[in-house]
């Protein structure tokens, strides 16, 4: 599909946003403000080019338990280490954003829901590190895709992924939800 002038302008803005991105000081993941700017542009490019755009909300399971039992510095270390574990299997065009306290958002441009699930399972197989008690760090992951979920804005895309991450938490944690199916670690 040939790119029109407007799409090229958006791609240039996207490149500029990537170049000027800011990092979260603790995790070195992109800061939310940068993530919102890039996600808005990514959504617009995906709409214009009729391509998929998937986001995954990664919510660290039981972080408050780590803070309470082992201290906040241990919880902070767990937060700081998570992006390093993700970076080992993350594709170059993907973007990890610290969305809020213990939540990260992973942008997967030009990625279908099925391909996102494959990538997320690769992350889960690699692991997210260990808690201070030696147990593996687990995540409740919600996934949404612009086309498959028929979503009209990037904010609704994120809301859908957040709602799915919450459902994973409610259904036992340590899983991935991209629609009505939850895939937990013990079932994989």
Automatic annotation (TrEMBL):
CDD domains: GGDEF. GO terms for cellular component: plasma membrane. PANTHER family: DIGUANYLATE CYCLASE DGCC-RELATED (PTHR45138:SF24), REGULATORY COMPONENTS OF SENSORY TRANSDUCTION SYSTEM (PTHR45138). GO terms for biological process: cell adhesion involved in single-species biofilm formation; negative regulation of bacterial-type flagellum-dependent cell motility. Gene3D superfamilies: 3.30.70.270. Residues 51-181 form the GGDEF domain. It holds the Pfam family GGDEF. This is diguanylate cyclase. It comes from Rivihabitans pingtungensis.
């Amino acid at each position: 599909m040939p790119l029109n002038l407007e799409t090229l302008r958006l791609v240039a803005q996207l490149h500029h946003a990537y170049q000027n991105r800011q990092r979260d000081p603790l995790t070195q993941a992109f800061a939310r403000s940068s993530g919102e700017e890039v996600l808005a542009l990514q959504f617009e490019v995906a709409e214009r080019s009729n391509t998929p755009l998937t986001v995954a909300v990664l919510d660290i399971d039981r972080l408050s338990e780590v803070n309470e039992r082992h201290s906040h510095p241990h919880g902070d270390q767990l937060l700081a280490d998570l992006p390093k574990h993700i970076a080992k299997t993350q594709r170059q065009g993907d973007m990890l954003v610290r969305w809020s306290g213990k939540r990260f958002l992973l942008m997967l441009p030009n990625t279908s829901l099925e391909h996102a699930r494959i990538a997320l399972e690769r992350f889960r197989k690699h692991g997210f590190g260990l808690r201070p008690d030696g147990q593996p760090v687990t995540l409740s992951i919600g996934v949404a895709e612009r086309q498959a979920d028929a979503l009209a804005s990037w904010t609704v895309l994120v809301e859908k992924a957040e709602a799915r991450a919450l459902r994973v938490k409610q259904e036992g944690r340590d899983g991935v939800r991209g629609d009505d199916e939850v895939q937990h670690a013990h079932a994989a």
